[in-house]
Specification:
about 130 residues, 11 strands, five-stranded antiparallel beta sheet
Length: about 130
């Protein structure tokens, strides 16, 4: 969270080129990250597939720092938040479930990500725990 706060405080916001692809039951986001740019992602509610198709990027996760170079792929577990620094121009793809074949981006993101960050994750987790204790 400190990293994300310093990014918002110290760096000029950049809108990355993003492509949105839809196939039956899936939503795929293709993110183009320019060389020497920093970014943070949302916290995902469920596991998701990550595919690095171009470039070299340093990423920080709860498991520590990793240097990744295309081609690479991995699964992000639920509740994970990533931050990255693009060493070179990078293309990063995320694949998410989209059972109802929604094509409006905001409802999909609200369904697959904790848009309010860790506070929302904690509230929803506590609500689930409270339900099972009743």
């Amino acid at each position: 969270m400190a990293l994300e706060a310093s990014i918002y405080r110290d760096l000029e916001p950049v809108e990355f080129e993003t492509e949105h692809l839809f196939a039956k039951g899936t939503y795929t986001r293709v993110l183009h990250i320019p060389e020497n740019h920093v970014l943070t992602g949302h916290i995902h509610k469920d596991s998701s597939i990550n595919i690095l198709v171009k470039g070299k990027i340093a990423i920080a996760t709860s498991e520590g720092e990793k240097m990744m170079e295309a081609p690479a792929y991995f699964v992000t577990e639920p509740g994970e938040k990533k931050a990255g620094y693009a060493i070179t121009d990078t293309i990063w793809i995320n694949v998410f479930p989209n059972e109802d074949d929604e094509e409006a981006i905001e409802p999909i993101l609200e369904r697959v990500c904790y848009m309010e960050g860790y506070e929302q994750l904690e509230r929803e987790t506590q609500a689930q725990l409270d339900f099972f204790e009743e």
